[in-house]
Design a protein that fits this description.
It is built from six helices and eleven strands. Strands 1, 2, 3, 4, 7, 8, 9, 10 and 11 form a nine-stranded mixed β-sheet that branches. Strands 5-6 form a two-stranded antiparallel sheet. The chain has helices at about 55-60, 70-85, 105-110, 135-150, 155-170, 175, and strands at about 10-15, 20-25, 45, 65, 85-90, 100, 120-135, 185, 195-205, 210-225, 240-255. One of its GO terms (biological process) is sporulation resulting in formation of a cellular spore.
Length: about 260
């Protein structure tokens, strides 16, 4: 289980392009007297004492979109279970109700605290799609295009097609899927609008290596100018709202033998 995160200072590079704002976080702490140095492509180990299987409940905290061979499926499942331990429960400041969210700093700290050769973190990015009145299908298309561009998920048409279909199916069936562990509803800051945070795990093979794959632990925050949860019910691909989105993601190289 992830502990509380330490304070970290990050160098942030911001670049804008059209209506998509990209924020690149270089996860290299600024030097302090009591701060250890980390690098995003450093090898990260999993402690031998953690080689136990998490519950099915933990595994469902991320929807998996994968094109992996059967030999890598077990390691992909272990990766999702491990990330699922950093979903936190807190009280919504507006509704005073309990809500879940994925704690990115805590997730980063989990890997910083461990060592091994099964897992390497390669990148972390956050990028946004500015608010505009468009239909849901177009918004989903922009989300998928952003992931493909920012993480260079090139040459995996089956995965990107499935990713687009999966995301749209989720947001057009929110009434049925709202209780799923991978979806979290919350009011927007100031109470003007609301959003859903959706945890998605993308897993693709590495052509040059039969024994490892690229894993993308991601969250999609889809926000609209509607205030109540049930205002999201009944959306279709052609439903038009003032949508915006924030996507976060960590890219890993995972070895076949990785165990949570």
């Amino acid at each position: 289980m992830c502990g509380e995160s330490d304070h970290l200072d990050f160098l942030i590079l911001i670049r804008s392009s059209g209506n998509i704002k990209q924020r690149y976080f270089i996860l290299l702490p600024i030097e302090h007297s009591q701060t250890k140095q980390h690098h995003t492509n450093s090898v990260l180990k999993i402690p031998q004492t953690s080689a136990t299987t998490m519950s099915d409940e933990t595994a469902t905290k991320f929807e998996t979109v994968s094109d992996l061979p059967p030999s890598l499926a077990a390691a992909a499942s272990q990766m999702v279970q491990y990330a699922g331990t950093c979903v936190e429960l807190e009280t919504d400041e507006v509704t005073k109700q309990d809500k879940r969210r994925f704690d990115w700093p805590s997730f980063k700290k989990c890997f910083d605290d461990y060592g091994g050769i099964d897992l390497a973190m390669l990148d972390y990015k956050e990028f946004t799609i500015s608010r505009s009145e468009i239909d849901l299908s177009m918004m989903v298309q922009r989300i998928v295009e952003s992931f493909v561009r920012e993480f260079h998920i090139i040459g995996y048409e089956n995965v990107t097609t499935l990713l687009r279909t999966t995301i749209e199916k989720t947001f057009t069936n929110l009434e049925q899927k709202s209780s799923n562990e991978c979806l979290y509803f919350s009011k927007s800051a100031g109470g003007q609008g609301s959003f859903w945070e959706y945890g998605v795990h993308i897993a693709v093979p590495i052509p040059s290596s039969a024994n490892s794959f690229h894993s993308f632990i991601t969250t999609i925050k889809l926000e609209a100018d509607v205030s109540d949860q049930n205002d999201w019910w009944g959306l279709t691909g052609s439903s038009r709202k003032n949508f915006s989105a924030t996507m976060n993601g960590m890219k890993f190289e995972v070895e076949e033998g990785f165990k949570n």
